[in-house]
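[audit] Reproducing an earlier prediction to check determinism. Same input, same settings, fresh worker. If the tokens differ from the archived copy the diff job will pick it up downstream; this log only records the rerun itself.
[audit] input (402 residues):
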Amino acid sequence: MIDLFAGAGGLSEGFVQAGFDPIAHIEMDRDACDTLRTRCCYHYLRNKNKLDIYYSYLKGEISRDKLYKSVPSWVIDAVINVEISDNTIKSTFAKIKELSANRGIDLIIGGPPCQAYSLLGRHDKKMEDDPRTRLYLQYGKFLAEFKPKGFVFENVPGLLSAKKGEHFKNLREYFDSLGYNVHYKMLDASDYGVLQVRKRLIIVGWQKEHDYGYPDIPINKASVAVNDILNDLPLLKAGDVLQVAPYRQSANEYLLVSGIRDKDEVFVTQNITRPINTNDAAIYAYAIKAWNDKHIRVKYTDLPVELKTHKNEESFLDRFKVVDGNGLSHTLVAHLAKDGHYFIHPNINYCRSISIREAARLQSFPDNYFFEGSRSAKFKQIGNAVPPLMAKTIATTIFQML
């Protein structure tokens, strides 16, 4: 497969776990590319029974450069750091052909940046002027060049309704002109074992002469709640940075079956939280108590006068939101990179926003998945990702169809 607009690799991780072999990952963000390269090292070293090298890197015993030099160059070269555009597409094709070594491509996967179709994104800019709304045209050029048997295209629900459905109509007609029948459904990650309500449009296309239809993806809801996947992680206060720390308790069945935690691993990385000022800490405590005691979502207008710091009481009133410890998390978003007010940890004794590792778990990333870059870059990558557990369920079905 080829992985386009790869981000931190949540979608491709699920496909790799299902048995697909990624020839190349294409991504424009430098930090996300480093995350992808580090994960490519993990998969290569795991297959060679040399994971001790990878764990040495996680523990800070060797540099990233040394990790990358411990694998063949093609492992690192498989991640192509480039913005997909008319100016770069020919050279990108050439690199992929070099990496594929004449192997055929069965599948192309990827989700072009979706901010332009999201409800928030529509306020940023006139949508018709946003080049991100036409990235499906670049996606189609890869279909025309490599002629895979099928493709998987992920995006936000807003793509269906954007510009009164015109963008989606154009997309379908374009893929049809390239020789692919298009099938689509709105899927919710919580139906596939992820402890998060996350609705996404999943489009599946097949070459017209071999149209397998939409995959019959089995629903498998988790029987646990958010607290059940946070309790074994290190105790953290606001502002704590524990790059490596032991687990506090043994793994429950969900963590093992989902692949989030490996039974042989004894430490967990990137237990990093944001610092918090005294006023916000008081707001967090107020919001956590209201949610845990009465199941009330506190609005800014509900706060005691002494806790209010500005006069805007008309917009973004729900800017402080507690993650439901006894149920599913609300949808993680890339805004996590800017502040954590919308993802407050449900335990009032912590009084902080969720950590990098906790956010990764809510997205179903394995604990040995290491995110590169600054704290903000890590949160952004996690917030933008497709949950690997959801991706694996989709990928397993498609693998069987092929």
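[audit] rerun output stored. Observation attached for the diff report: The longest strand covers residues 180-188.
[audit] end
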